[in-house]
């Protein structure tokens, strides 16, 4: 019995030690993963290689079986020679195989709060850190606009490229309205699809007020502020004509800042003629000087692949489970709002 009890005690100690080690290792691994997750990940895709692969696959598909066999044999030999040459260059310290300048491609599909600017800033910082002379940037932009401060920051991020004299082209396949156009106008060149929606240089705000409903139900609302215009219009309280006037003044001031910004980016544009809050299709926008060229982002990329190495940059933020859930809910709300806007036919603020 003593032997069995001693063995059981020994076994319990071993299990306890093993469990303790497992817990410590798990904690260390989780902490290291959290550190990595806080940073996110920058992903690069060589669009030039993807295009070449697609072109070769299509060409091979049009051959008969005998030709395909010979073609695959030739391709295998070619790839082997290229790998050998790349290895030799790497040994000599040469890492730029093509010698071509790079066209850095980014994507911005903007939500109402322009939360995508957090990824955009990382992508632009990455480009600025490695860009060589003659490198350029192409931004595929899609946004109906949103909050002023969010899109103001997004436009400021694009201005970093302009400040470093890196040519920027913005391609609009669907929509760049209001805050979206605020971003687009920073570019040296704007390409728009024929029926893309461009413009909406204006500012709008609306606030519901349920004060009369509350009064009918004998509900009082008290609002205390320090500062005459700390709160101009409210949802619950009774709004005053003075508050409404101040609110309109703030909107007009924001609109003026918007117009001045567009004019500074595109001096030749008649801003007063287009800053009415209206939007136009791409063809009309070209006539008014809002864009420089009619076309799609696809054609712009294909044209540049002759002379540039085309690389797509995409910064992926690592989010916790709660952030993923709330982010998914926000994306759903944005999609519903965009669908409502498309049916109504008017760009968002």
TrEMBL record:
<keyword id="KW-0812">Transmembrane</keyword>
<comment type="similarity">
    <text>Belongs to the peptidase S49 family.</text>
</comment>
<feature type="region of interest" description="Disordered">
    <location>
        <begin position="62"/>
        <end position="94"/>
    </location>
</feature>
<keyword id="KW-0720">Serine protease</keyword>
<dbReference type="InterPro" id="IPR002142">
    <property type="entry name" value="Peptidase_S49"/>
</dbReference>
<keyword id="KW-1133">Transmembrane helix</keyword>
<dbReference type="InterPro" id="IPR013703">
    <property type="entry name" value="Peptidase_S49_N_proteobac"/>
</dbReference>
<feature type="domain" description="Peptidase S49">
    <location>
        <begin position="162"/>
        <end position="309"/>
    </location>
</feature>
<dbReference type="Pfam" id="PF08496">
    <property type="entry name" value="Peptidase_S49_N"/>
</dbReference>
<dbReference type="InterPro" id="IPR029045">
    <property type="entry name" value="ClpP/crotonase-like_dom_sf"/>
</dbReference>
<keyword id="KW-0645">Protease</keyword>
<keyword id="KW-0378">Hydrolase</keyword>
<dbReference type="GO" id="GO:0004252">
    <property type="term" value="F:serine-type endopeptidase activity"/>
</dbReference>
<protein>
    <submittedName>
        <fullName>Protease SohB</fullName>
    </submittedName>
</protein>
<keyword id="KW-0472">Membrane</keyword>
<feature type="transmembrane region" description="Helical">
    <location>
        <begin position="6"/>
        <end position="29"/>
    </location>
</feature>
<dbReference type="Pfam" id="PF01343">
    <property type="entry name" value="Peptidase_S49"/>
</dbReference>
<dbReference type="InterPro" id="IPR047272">
    <property type="entry name" value="S49_SppA_C"/>
</dbReference>
<feature type="compositionally biased region" description="Basic residues">
    <location>
        <begin position="69"/>
        <end position="90"/>
    </location>
</feature>
<feature type="domain" description="Peptidase S49 N-terminal proteobacteria">
    <location>
        <begin position="2"/>
        <end position="158"/>
    </location>
</feature>
<dbReference type="GO" id="GO:0005886">
    <property type="term" value="C:plasma membrane"/>
</dbReference>
<dbReference type="GO" id="GO:0006508">
    <property type="term" value="P:proteolysis"/>
</dbReference>
<keyword id="KW-1003">Cell membrane</keyword>
